[in-house]
From TrEMBL:
This is Nitroreductase. Residues 35-196 form the Nitroreductase domain. It comes from Lentzea flaviverrucosa. PANTHER family: IODOTYROSINE DEIODINASE 1 (PTHR23026:SF90), NADPH NITROREDUCTASE (PTHR23026). The keyword Flavoprotein applies. GO terms for molecular function: oxidoreductase activity. Keywords: Flavoprotein, FMN, Oxidoreductase.
Amino acid sequence: MTRPHTHPFIPFTPPRLPIEEGLDRGRAFHRLLDARRSVRWFSPDPVPAEVIELAVLAANTAPSGAHQQPWRFVATRNPDLKRRIRAAAEEEERRFYHERELPEWHAALAHLETDATKEFLEVAPWLVVAFAQKQQDGRKTYYTNESVGIACGFFIAALHSMGLATLTHTPNPMTFLTDLLGREGERPYILFPIGYPADDCEVPDLRRKPLGEALTFADGLA
């Protein structure tokens, strides 16, 4: 069947997997991602730039509104820049923890035992900031937040698949990242410290939402 098009289209014919092979892949993928945790204690051991490149290539495969791909990942391992990012982030975090009246949000975070100290921003060998582009070449982008969020999810999964750890750090506001990284006209979305977990790394004892709370079949047939 040939459909009429006014723009270039190409055939898409991926191999159709036998259902059992597909299910085996799905189970393996779940096991891989189920071992992922957000990390706040990193090893300073170096990580090659190719790791970051491969993770961004994976992020670039994410779907986006009108295929505008409204993201830019900015990576640094410069010690002085990491120090300045940490100082600015901690300034905002001190306001959040000690000056802003947000009792419900503070209570929600209590079990993670986080505070205004963000040492990991200097210890992790890489800092990568995902920026959202509300405009490209003077034109508005669409579904920007959703698109960047999906790309960041792919980015995290790719890092984990290579044995790396990260954290979705979002100090509020994050405009200092726009200034420090020279990204005028772009909005910082997530700050990712990236590296190997420290040998003495610990994470909160958490349980993920069970399938029955995450999935509802609404057709009455399953």
